[in-house]
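Revision sheet: structure tokens.
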Amino acid sequence: MSDSANGIPLACSMNAFDDGQRLRYAAIRLEMGTLIRGVDELENGYTLRFDADGSLFLLLAEFVTLEHVCCPFLQFRLEVGWQEALILLTLMGGDGVKAFLREELGQKS
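Predicted:
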């Protein structure tokens, strides 16, 4: 299956990582899972909410960098909320991406 918005296959390739990147990615995913404060559903993806923290922002930026290596079909937006002390990480894409993310994030339909 491909993301019709950009023609990139809708498939993760963990083989794109070297051993060090794979270990770091797994550690970041594990840590992120414990820090998510909420999930907002979008038409074409999800926004994850985190408490605002400079070191967490850097961790999320590292996650985006690594995630883009294995899942180039995803689009990312990383923001610091100005009205609330939040960091927002939005993951989105074209056709099929939301279903993929729903499974990855463990969200219910």
